[in-house]
Design brief:
This protein is an alpha/beta fold. It is 32% helix and 9% strand.
Length: 452
């Protein structure tokens, strides 16, 4: 069965063709511009991973089974549904050339080393946020069953400040959109880092339940998400935290994820689900310390999909970018119930997958699983006790639905040329023009990628 990133074969078979999947019931958001942004030299966040993911989606032919939409830039008004107007305004006007003029505002909004100002920052946040907002809207109107936005999932951003490589919290914005049509929305986070920004936004309400499975302790960022953090006021018991230790493997993770999520779905009965699939929980991640395989990670997607509740799937963390691309392409196939080849088909970034050229590759190091049975049983008992004391499917009086802010429900469709990469990347398999050579050299040194 297992194991993807930690060795062995992933659950795939056949050639590059896909089977199953119903075009129109799964929608996918991407724009070639979003993969070209650059946080700066030596910064672990690489938007280039999004271009690599999309190339694999195309190479495997998965795009033929989905409705493909170009990312739309969210408007400042949309961003201000959660974020403060002065923060939104600042993100839209600060540039690398002018940031020295705004020393106090840079500090106030927490921009700097972790969250640098880079070329096109304002466009970047509007693009990835637009995808999550529009995906939520299509779910609201019954136009799709699952919406995928791998560029989204930036879960650390706060109402008035950046945090942890995240500037705008597209997840909160998408959930606010879903709340216009659904009495209850469930948020699930499988990133190795605690989903603090989303939890904080909904900590005092019972209309959103947040469930986060994450590394906790040892001064690990962001330092929140303790087992006893369960929400406050009306939101008490509607924040669920599953703190884990180093070396979590597939069996350990699923021994918690599946029974907890089964119980959550039973008692909370959400009208929609948002699943943040941060890939830094994979084994071998540059900033991570878990040992999940591709299958162990994708099993979370498969498990939540079986409930047949409107589902928004996003990206998140993930800092070994060739494994991020493997993960999210594989999970696109999982959403589609598609079978794809373990041999990676020809694409613009083949050199990143050397020498195996496979979806499943062996991790370069092994981290001992520090999650002992007694600890796991304790975590599970505390979580189940909290869920037992929670009000069953809390009701809410629904009011007139607010408008969809200046948005067409039929966004720009990616052209047929995307099948060969021509519309998105220029001609044939040529990579983006703004691809950074210094980025490639750095990736080489950090991850041992072989270039030919």
């Amino acid at each position: 069965m297992s194991s993807g990133i930690d060795g062995g074969d992933v659950r795939v078979e056949g050639g590059g063709d896909v089977s199953a999947g119903k075009k129109g019931r799964v929608c996918y958001y991407y724009d070639r511009e979003v993969g070209n942004f650059y946080y700066g030299p030596n910064h672990p966040m690489k938007p280039h991973r999004l271009a690599m993911t999309h190339e694999l989606v195309l190479a495997y032919g998965l795009h033929t089974q989905m409705s493909m939409f170009a990312l739309r830039k969210a408007t400042p008004t949309e961003l201000a549904q959660f974020h403060t107007e002065d923060y939104v305004d600042f993100l839209g006007r600060v540039t690398p050339e002018t940031q020295h003029e705004y020393v106090s505002l840079m500090q106030r909004f927490n921009l700097g080393e972790d969250c640098p100002v880079f070329d096109g920052l304002g466009d970047f946040v509007r693009l990835y946020s637009g995808g999550s907002i529009d995906g939520a809207r299509r779910l609201n109107h019954g136009l799709t069953d699952v919406a995928i936005n791998w560029s989204g999932g930036l879960h650390h951003a706060k109402k008035g400040e950046a945090s942890g490589f995240c500037y705008v919290n597209d997840l909160v914005l998408a959930i606010l959109e879903l709340l216009k049509h659904h009495a209850r929305v469930l948020y699930i986070d499988i990133d190795i880092h605690h989903g603090d920004g989303v939890e904080e936004a909904f900590y005092t309400t019972d209309r959103v339940m947040t469930v986060s499975f994450h590394k906790y302790g040892d001064m690990f960022f962001p330092g929140t998400g303790a087992l006893g953090d369960v929400g406050a006021n009306r939101g008490k018991r509607y924040s669920v935290n599953v703190p884990l230790r180093d070396g979590v493997d597939d069996r350990t993770f699923q021994s918690l994820f599946q029974p907890i999520m089964e119980r959550v779905m039973e008692v909370y009965q959400p009208g929609a689900v948002v699943l943040q699939c941060g890939a830094d929980s994979l084994g071998g991640d540059r900033l991570g310390c878990f040992s999940l395989s591709l299958d162990g990670h994708a099993d979370c997607v498969r498990f939540m999909k079986k409930f047949r509740v409107p589902l928004l799937v996003t990206g998140g963390g993930g800092y070994t970018k060739h494994n991020v691309a493997r993960c999210w392409a594989y999970e696109t196939a999982a959403v589609l119930d598609a079978q794809i080849s373990e041999s990676i088909p020809m694409n613009a970034y083949m050199e990143y997958y050397a020498p195996e050229y496979r979806l499943g590759v062996a991790s370069r190091w092994c981290i001992e699983n520090a999650n002992k049975v007694a600890y796991l049983n304790h975590v599970k008992k505390v979580v189940f006790d909290n869920l037992k004391d929670m009000e069953f499917a809390p009701s809410v009086q629904m009011h007139e639905v607010p408008p969809d802010w200046l948005v067409q429900l039929e966004p720009e469709v990616l052209k047929d040329g995307a099948a060969t990469g021509q519309d998105l990347f220029g001609s044939g398999f040529a990579p983006p023009k703004r691809r950074r050579r210094e980025d490639e050299r750095e990736e080489n040194m950090n991850n041992g990628v072989q270039h030919h």
